[in-house]
Amino acid sequence: MSRPGFVLEVDDRTPPLLVHNGEGFLLERFPQGTRVVYPPEALPPVRDVDEAIQNALLNPIESEPLPELLRPGMRLTIAFDDISLPLPPMKKPDIRQRVIEAVLELAAQAGVDDVELISANALHRRLTPNELREIVGERVFRSFFPDGKLYNFDAEDRDNLTHLGQTRHGEDVEISKRAAESDLLVYVNVNLVAMDGGHKSTSIGLASYKSLKHHHNSHTMIHSRSFMDHKASKMHHSAWRMGEVLTSHVKVFQIETTLNNDIFGGPIEFLQKREWEWSIKDQASMLGTKRALAAAPAKVRHKIFTDVRSNYGLTGINAGAIEPVHEKTIEAVHRQHLVEVQGQSDVAIMGVPFVGPYNVNSVMNPILAACMGLGYYFNSYRGNPVVRKDGAVILYHPVDYEFSQLHHPSYVDFFEEVLSESTDPATIEAKFEKQYAEDPWYIHLYRTSYAYHGVHPFYMWYWISHALDHCGDIVWVGANRKTVERMGFRSASTLQDALEMVSHSVGRSPSITYLHNPPHLLADVR
Amino acid sequence: MSLADKLKDKKVLVTGVTGFVGEALLHRIIGELPGTTVAAIIRPKGSLTGTDRMAQLLKKDIFKPFYGEGTPYADAEALTAARIQVIDGDLSDVPELPKDLDIVVHCAGDVSFDPPIHEAFTTNVLGTKSLLERIVETGQPVHYVHISTAYTAGRRRGAIPEASVEHFVDWRTEAEAGMAMKSRIEEQSRSAPMLAKFRKEAEKLHRRAGHLTAAADTERRRTEWVAKRLVETGTERARSLGWTDCYTFTKALGERVVEEFSGKLPTSIVRPAIIESAVQSPHPGWIEGFKMAEPLILAYGRGELPEFPASPDSVIEIIPVDHVVGAICAVMATEPELSKPEYYHIGSGARNPLTFEQLYAGVRAYFSKHPFDLGERGAVRLPVWKFPGGDSVETMLRYGERAHKIADKIITSVPRGERTRKYARELDVQKRRLDFLRRYMDLYSEYAQAELQFIDDNVLALHNALEGDDKEKFACDTAVVDWQYYLQELHCPSVTESMRRLDVVRKKRNKALAESAGVLKKVEPSEAKVVAAFDMDGTLLSSNVIETYLWMRLPELDGPQRAGEIGAMLRKLPKLIAAERKDRGTFLRTIYRRYAGADLEELNQIVDEILAEHVLERLSGAAVRRIREHRAAGHKTILITGAVRPLTRPLEPLFDEIVAAELAVDDRGRCTGFLSGPPLVGESRAAWLKHHARQTNIDLSKSFAYADSHSDLPMLSAVGNPVAVSPDVSLFRAARAARWQIVDWKTPSTSSRLELPGVNVR
């Protein structure tokens, strides 16, 4: 049995603790009394993955078994989560590949021959053929990709979108035409964190800008407290309403999978162990890694981190109707991520790691770093934020001025043109969003190249609006001053300086909580 | 009897009244000689007549006390009407003179030490001659006061008496030969070997930009050579006869002319030494323009004069301008006999010598107390002179020049980059300093090592003969000057004042420039039709033709073939680079020959499927923003590139028009290795742009062009808003000289030169 997560109180015997810092990590001594939240250790995986998949498909929740839904001559569409999940990417074979292969097997047995596979990337960048191959596996790729039956969703392809109607709140539901017109839509998800899955899968993953803007906006996002708790998230409420409309038109067979916290293996296993339990071997590999990273040129370092693939064990798979399936899923996710934390603190500290959902095989630009820290990690709570209202957040990341012109062309322009005018999400939304969303060049790149949609950086900024609204001070340790300043934050060279800088609002001896993730955790703040 | 009485009702003709001494003399006559009237020959300049220039002169501060309230004259016009007669005219063609002249003071002259030989003879010899002929024409016994220079003594040593310079040079022969040099050197410069030499030098630098650019530079080189040769010829002729330079040489010959006329006119020859700022009148420290020592003083103060080829004990004959003017006035009142010209040395060396070492100490003391404030770096470090002697300084300088030459060669051939440009800029500063040193050392080392002593007994006698308060008003005894006080309190503050004012302005400007450096002004939509032309390789993305060729060809080859292709390119690289430096068109053709046999459709496909992401990844974000900004402003965006058409495909949505090299294909759609038209490089780009502008009614003066290499110079020059993007050193220099905007558009650091999709990147 694995150990649950826990909260450590730093005392004089606590060794320096590991902090993720972009493409690298630090060992930091925290002030005594700092609470350190450790995620639960990896749950034991299911013993036989294939058996679990079969079981889920044949004994779904509140649905007929999948074989009964399949018949010759039907239109079957399989949608799956794109490359933004899981993080870091999974070692081969990807869980989606195994599920999709099982579904296709059943479809073949039933004589279904009109099958299409769609990567549910919404306004994310298209996946390259290689990335698609990594997710669905060589066999599926070869059978479907050359005929154009395995492809990326295109949210700007007006001819291939269907408007299914409006929710009771007047929100447009517009999704992939193929999915909308299918006799059965099978959605294969990877539910890495509590935010994913449920109605978010189809009604967001296969939706157009017209539909997305109803919940991806500064107002909704500021009132999503948090994204990791769909019952308390306005964004999820909207997605759920859209899901109602969607499921009344389309039969959806939802397959949700949950993974354990076995993220770092091999020589970097020490990253997911507790520091005082590091063996000689762990200490040696830590030292070796640290030295090697320090000596390596930036490009080599980047390559090392880009190539990280995680083991992940499957902790559960559920299939059937969306809502009951998702409830089971959330249970499993909570089992793996939830850590009880007593009360809020004045200061929260987080180390932003090298990868976020939107920079797989790319670089984490300043906006993505902010989104990772203040969007994802800050929101990684249930109940109340880890930090009290008007408290301070201290983040670790170099925040270099680095943008991928291929993947994030609108980000660099957003950084230069939008953030230089304002950093207020609502102002930005009113003044710039439409222009970026409708820009023909960005649309061209989104559709034909590998670029995130023009509006995507705005979503990143809305993503952090809750943190901006909630926190009094946001300070980055060891970050590029210029880039951090452009985003409206401040930079400190050491943790001590950062604490000094925030002392005017939280005092000289604030209560501090350090969220020791990844591996992922969800703070259940009471 | 006072001078004012002696010169009462006299009419004095002054030449060179707008010059330093002339102006001071006019001031003194108006102020201290109330009964004397002045006639001034003033050369019209531009649209200004002589009268206008006089009016302008009188507006200067020193003349203001002479008119207006409390004076006999209501305004400057009234003063002119009463005291001054302006004669429009030029000394190269002296106009007829008034018949009522009593005295002529000839101060006009070429003050430059290194004039072209024909100009020196024109002003200093022939001009003097025609002036004297005009004076003789008036038929009056006019007292002719000739302002010469003490250095007519040339390279003689020791005490120089106040007498005619002994030499046997015939001024007529020399003048004739000197005047003839102009056309001879001009002719020589047009000879085939010379022209070929200029052209070769110009082409070495500018061939890439095109023939016309090279031709313009050839002609510039020719005229520059002519000017230089004329100066050199003058200096060498002077030295071959024992003078320091062409100035003193022609001045000495001028004296001969004057001496010839002394039989017809009573004559005095005044020979001042180095005239510097005033002690007393018009006001302490008064100086106009830069004289001999000022550039050196300023350069020293800026820490840019590490050493000077002077002997520390040689005497530097400085005299304040008011002493010169005092002496001239006193001389005017004398009455020399015919055929016995009187000579007056106005110098300080004989009785109050200032050695070079003392001068150095004075200037150094001044700058130690009042250093130049050149910026954020605090006071300038003042060089300490050791006076190692002319030869060592010369050696030092020569080494410096040689080192600079080598460094320059290196910097123009290494790959471009921000650092290269920084070094290039530093080298240019160094070059300016070296040129300055070279020029002043060549000019002045003679004077700084002179061992002359000008006897000034005649002037002292004049001074002593002054009566009453004339001794104050027309003081001309330099023995009274306290040199250290003069240098530190009068002269240096006065000559540095304007520089300090300029420094404040410059500092502000530099600060503003530094802040806006590399920041382009936002593009405004305009009424006129405007284009924005962009170069591709090196401007929008860091790439070059060889690289892009490899991008296109490698994906379709297998392992060994790739190695072969890369090997072949590497072997050819030196040749290709040489070709590129010479003629971009030939270079492009050589590369494009290698496309022979490739399927054009396939190339297009490779670009669309594999290379597009590579190209887009390497695009500079700032470049794309700028292109889009132009589009948003309604400008027509054009991509002008020597790259092949398929490669521009990923950029198509950004541009209204793309001009690229078109690969010719045969009937099966395979590339023949030739282009269907000449590649658009260098001047052809400018020509294309101009033609396009004429056809479509585009206002090029409001248009934009962005390019990175020297070969794009003509295109950049064709538009009103040229921008040099991460330029190579040659373009960088041209852009700085023309004050074009320079920006650095970086290819994102996340892309890698060595990673190639379809080859080593999955």
From TrEMBL, chain A:
- PANTHER family, per the entry: LAR_N DOMAIN-CONTAINING PROTEIN (PTHR33171), LARA-LIKE N-TERMINAL DOMAIN-CONTAINING PROTEIN (PTHR33171:SF17)
Q: Matching InterPro entries, A to Z?
A: LarA-like, LarA-like_C, LarA-like_N
Q: Which residues form the LarA-like N-terminal domain?
A: 36-227
Q: Name one GO molecular function term.
A: lactate racemase activity
Signal peptide coordinates: none
Name the domain of life.
Bacteria
Its name, as the record gives it, is DUF2088 domain-containing protein
Q: Which Pfam families match?
A: Lar_N (PF09861)
Coiled-coil stretches, from where to where? none
Per the UniProt record, the source organism is Kribbella soli
Automatic annotation (TrEMBL), chain B:
Q: Which organism is it from?
A: Kribbella soli
Q: Name one GO biological process term.
A: suberin biosynthetic process
Report the residue ranges that make up the Thioester reductase (TE) domain in this protein. 14-328
Q: Pfam families, alphabetically? A: HAD, NAD_binding_4
**Could you identify this protein by its name?**
HAD-IB family hydrolase
Question: SUPFAM superfamilies, from UniProt?
Answer: HAD-like, NAD(P)-binding Rossmann-fold domains
Keyword annotations:
Hydrolase, Lipid biosynthesis, Lipid metabolism
Is ATP-binding there in the keyword field?
no
Which family does the similarity line name? Answer: Belongs to the fatty acyl-CoA reductase family.
Q: Which GO terms describe its molecular function?
A: alcohol-forming very long-chain fatty acyl-CoA reductase activity; hydrolase activity
Query: In its keyword annotation, does this UniProt entry include Lipid metabolism?
Result: yes
